[in-house]
Every structure is written in C-alpha cells, then in structure tokens.
Amino acid sequence: MCDLIETLVEIDRRGLYKDHEYISLFECCVHKLGLSEAAAYRRIRAARAIRLFPTIAPLLRQGRLALESVALLHPFLKDPDAAALVEAASGMRVWEVERLVASRRTEEPRRDVVRFVASVAVDPDPPAGYAPLFDSSATTPGGATDSASAPGAIACPTARLTPPSPAVRIAFTADARFFKLLKEAQAAMRHKYPNGRLDGVFRDALEALLRKKRPWAS
Questions:
Q1: Measuring CA to CA, how many Å separate 11 from each of 38, 70, 132?
Q2: What is the span of the domain harbouring residue 198?
Q3: At which of 53, 78, 102 does a domain end?
Q4: Has this prediction a pTM greater than 0.85?
Q5: What's the rounded Cα separation, in Å, for the pair 215 and 65?
Q6: Which of 48, 70, 80, 132 is most buried by a 10 A CB count?
Q7: 83/163 same-domain check
Q8: What pLDDT, on a 0 to 100 scale, did the predictor assign at position 116?
C-alpha cells in the first residue's frame, strides 16, 4: 500500500495520468488500477498529504499513522502548526485523530434528530436441542426413521418471522466528556453487547435511571 501511495505522489505531481487519457488521478485509480472509489479517495488524499508534508511517508510505513488518519489530516497540512499536528497525531488511533481535527472545525450547533426508519424482520434462531417436526431428509413410511423421533430431540413448531418493530434513528451532538463516558459504558457492557451496540447501552442506562428516579414503577 505504501509503495502505491508513493507512486501516486509522483503520478499526481507530474500529471502522468493524462498520458493515459484520464481527466483526473481519481479516474486513473478507479479505472486503470481497479480501486474502489473509497479506496481511491483515501489513497489520493494520503498521496497529497505526503506531497505537502513528506515526513508523513515514514510514519505511514511504520504504522504510526493509519491511512484513514492521513486522509483526515490532509486538509490541515497547510496550517502554520502542521508539524505539531502531525506529531500529535502520530501513534493515535483513527477515532482519536478524528477528535483531534474536529477541534479545528467550526460548525453551527446542530439540532437533535429523531426519525422513524424502516426496520427488518428477524428470523429467530431455533432453541438448543430443536429438531423439526418434518425433516426434509426423512424417508417415506417404512424407510429410515425421521429425525424428530431421534432420542433427545425436542419437537418445536417451525420458526416464524418476528413482525418488524418500529425503529427510530436518533442523532445528536455531545461533548468530549460524554464521549468518554460512552466509551467507558461500552467497555463495561461488553459482556452483554459484544459488538458495542449503542442502542443496548443507552437502553440499559435509561432503564437504570428511571428505576432510580421512579422506584415505585419497578
């Protein structure tokens, strides 16, 4: 990957993609090199970051900066304190670099958003020990015994699709302290929500808060 990015630095600097009749480096990466649009975008960003700040190249090779982190830093590399920014980002994880560069952006406060969205029906997993009443592998009468009569098997009705429940998408802006608390809560609930699902973490937190505020409702 690093070799490709350093090659893209030269292709971009000298405009060599025009020799192959491409109107941009992006078009060359997608159609000539076969990169996805997202992969092309990140690698071009990284190449242009290295053009502006060559010391990024060894940091990328050493793994001290991730490709996504370099792409995030690119818009700020013409700032007077770019060297300090790169040094601060070195060794950080991508989300930490996102937080670092976010402090340089000025945005108007955004309103909270609550929006109903389509939900997907879930096909529940069958219980442990379940054997279907009618096994497709069973033979006609007089042949082999079907699996429902096997010792230890539990007859269970055919699983049904659970009707979809309403789903809501919620978005809001919070401060760094909130984010720290959120990461700690995710870590504390990892045994219950291995994927760190935010809806589960928030639901448990809200239920705990309401039990504390309204103990009579428990």
A1: 19, 19, 62
A2: 174-217
A3: 102
A4: no
A5: 49
A6: 70
A7: no
A8: 82
